[in-house]
Design brief:
The protein is an alpha+beta fold. 29% of the residues lie in helices and 25% in strands. It is globular and about 45 Å long.
Length: 199
């Protein structure tokens, strides 16, 4: 079989056969692999990120972390290996995510050690070559429906960015030669996407 024709991620239709704790243990037992879970309990196998996309993710996260530290913005920034249990029951792992200090402080120690039951306030997803665009767009809308305030979907392969925010229509920008504004979550933060893409 030509595996290059398989669009990732792959969903295993298992239904709700595992509790939240059981799914967490399943992920820990298979920690060399990456999984998500949809709101119906089905397990989603995520492919590893390509090297260039991984570098791209890290550079963006580094820019945001430096800005947060310089401006003393309270909250927690997370990488792509972090899982969150959304209010609808799905477990998702955004490429970059940020949670307010107020939300993070409200969690118990046990909740923080597992897939924290909270939807990040800011999310970035970066499309890998194997990712289906429609799948990512649906996931971005899920984040917004579950309380995320601002989310960016960066599609390097079709050179476009989708901007999601509460109470507004999705904005599509057909270019990567842009500067993305962090308003209203991070007033004053500007991500020069063109500079990162060319680095």
């Amino acid at each position: 079989m030509d595996t290059s024709l398989i669009t990732m991620p792959v969903t295993f239709k298992v239904g709700d056969i595992m509790s939240e704790d059981e799914f967490f243990r399943f992920c820990q037992m298979n920690d060399m692999l990456s999984f998500e879970r949809d709101k119906n309990g089905n397990i989603i196998f995520m492919s590893p990120t390509g090297s260039f996309t991984g570098k791209f993710n890290l550079r963006i996260a580094n820019k945001l972390l430096n800005w947060l530290d310089s401006n003393e913005i309270a909250g927690e920034l997370f990488d792509s290996s972090t899982g969150f249990t959304l209010p609808n029951g799905a477990v998702r792992s955004p490429d970059v995510s940020w949670v307010t200090k107020e939300k993070w402080d409200a969690l118990s120690h046990n909740e923080r050690e597992k897939f924290a039951p909270v939807c990040p306030d800011f999310i970035i997803e970066i499309r890998s070559q194997s990712d289906g665009l429609k799948y990512l767009q649906d996931k971005m809308q899920e984040y917004i429906d579950n309380g995320c305030q601002l989310a960016w979907l960066i599609d390097r392969f079709k050179e476009q960015v989708f901007i999601y925010s509460q109470g507004t229509e999705v904005r599509t920008i057909k270019s990567l030669d842009i500067q993305l504004s962090g308003d209203p979550v991070f007033p004053g933060f500007i991500l020069d996407l063109a500079a990162i893409d060319k680095s």
